[in-house]
Amino acid sequence: MANHIRRPVVTFVILSVGLGVLAFSLRPLTQKGPARLPQQDLQVRVSPSTFLVEARHNFVIKAASDFASPCERIEASIAELGWQQSMTRKELFDGARSELNPAHTGTYQVAFTCDGREIGSAPISVVIGPELAARPIYTWWLSSGKPRYTEGSFYCVPVTIGAMVSRGGATPVPASVARDTHFALRDLKAQAPTPIPELVIVKNTAQSDPICVSFPIGAEYSLVAYAPDGKASNTLDLNWSKSAPALTLTAYPDHLQTYATNISPALVGVYLSADGHKLTPPKSLEVLYTAPATIRSDPSSPLVLSPQSSLAQYKATALTDSSAKIDFSEPTMALKTSVTIDFQPIWLFLGIASGAGLIGVIAGRWKDVFNQSGWVAAGELFTSFVAGPIVFELILIGKLADFGMGPMWVSILGAALAGVVGGYMGLAVFKGLQGILGWLQDLAQQRG
After folding, report:
1. Interval 267-282: pLDDT, tens
2. Around 311, how many Cα atoms within 13 Å sit in the side-chain half-sphere?
3. CA distance 160 to 213
4. Cα(20)–Cα(26) distance, rounded to whole angstroms?
5. Same fold for the domain at 129-245 and the one at 248-344?
6. How far separated are the first and last CA of the chain, in Å rounded?
7. How far apart are CA 359 and CA 47, in angstroms?
8. Domain spans of the chain?
9. pLDDT tens, 80-126?
10. Distance between CA atoms of 256 and 316, rounded to whole angstroms?
């Protein structure tokens, strides 16, 4: 009798441990979001930044900070002056030397591109000469470049001021100043974050180095620069709705497959991006989503992107095989995106669980199964065959503990392991019922 009990128990333990080890070693990999660097636009200084027209000048281009672009070669150009130069990333950080003989006066931008995408710019000015008149009357001209992303402060707009003079009613042209000239920058709408750094046109130059003015979502500025004598520049209007960079709401991956169970959710990362790079928003943004009624979503409330957490995770589960489209939207900037999730059926795994339950009981009890009456053997085999997929299904819908294996159950080995365990649980139930029936029969005979 002891051997009859020991043999199935030992066999069950060996099968369970072996299948458990195999299931863990072949567990499905957890899908992670994209490992992308935040975008950091190139900031460059050109020295000197003021040039005399029709005179040959040597100058240095040097990166003022690191940037996230993977390019090893950067292209620099001034389209209006027909100048261009290619340099390596190292040369740009060490300080690339170049030469320019400008044919026209004016204010220009040195554009820096990587694989055809502009990643930064730097202003220069071309003047007629150091002296246009004994006492030139200057016009101060405020201008801006394209919004620039800086990690930790979102977007800012480079703003610079130039000195312009005109003679005899002619069109104003850049002119160098005789002394350092400082300007206080003010926002007439009082919306720009303060304090705003001052602008300075250095002696013998015609244009200041740019300062970067914070440019948050919804910004609307009217900037004016004031010289020491109180003379004002032109008004520079900066409006987020007109000058905003091309931002997108990204969901990654945009198409994925999972099984129709509660323990294998589809994981989607949602974030703000530009040019394929993940951005950190300057404030908390709510991302709304809509999903079919058959989908169970987590969280149940809107997703939140914030300076502390720039990646929001969305989880979806379903108990029926189907294809579902989930729509995401950020209302303040009217950004939208969507993902498609295919929930696959689990019939194959249910069949494996049934077969594993049946085979596990036969292998564990061996001849003992068939050394019984026909209806008892059939009952044991039937309960083990049915109990395997029942236990497997209860694990998948979260009604039974998954012992930390989670989605690893949704595999061939996971289904087989659950089937073996379920088969023996079903056998135990059958044996218990058989014992109760036998006791009732004995009791009836004694009373009869």
Report:
1. 999 999 988 788 888 8
2. 15
3. 10
4. 10
5. yes
6. 31
7. 81
8. 37-127, 129-245, 248-344, 347-447
9. 888 998 888 888 888 889 888 888 888 888 888 888 778 888 888 88
10. 11
Q: How many residues appear in the chain?
A: 448
Residue type, 313: Q
Domain made up of 37-127: CATH architecture: Sandwich (2.60)
Instruction: Output the CA angle 104-108-109, nearest 5 degrees.
Output: 150
More confident position, 373 or 141: 141
Tokens (6 digits) for 231: 């003379």
**The domain 248-344: what is its CATH number?**
2.60.40.10
Question: What SS3 string covers the chain?
Answer: CHHHHHHHHHHHHHHHHHHHHHHHHCCCCCCCCCCCCCCCCCCEEEECCEEECCCCEEEEEEECCCCCCCCCEEEEEEHHHCEEEEEEHHHHHHCEEEEECCCCCEEEEEEEEECCEEEEEEEEEEECCCCCCCCCCCEEEEEECCCEEECCCEEEEEEEEEEEECCCCCCCEECCCCCCEEEEEEECCCCCCCCCCCEEECCCCCECCCEEEECCCCCEEEEEEECCCCCECCCEEEEHHHHCCCCEEEEECCEEEEECCCCCCEEEEEEEEECCEECCCCCCEEEEEECCCCCEEECCCCEEECCCCCEEEEEEECCCCEEEEEEEEECCCCEEEEEEEEEECCHHHHHHHHHHHHHHHHHHHHHHHCCCCHHHHHHHHHHHHHHHHHHHHHHHCCCCCCCCCHHHHCCHHHHHHHHHHHHHHHHHHHHHHHHHHHHHHHHHHHHC
Q: What is the pTM of this model?
A: 0.66
Residue 228 preceded by cis peptide, ω within 30: no
Instruction: Return the CATH architecture of domain 129-245.
Output: Sandwich (2.60)
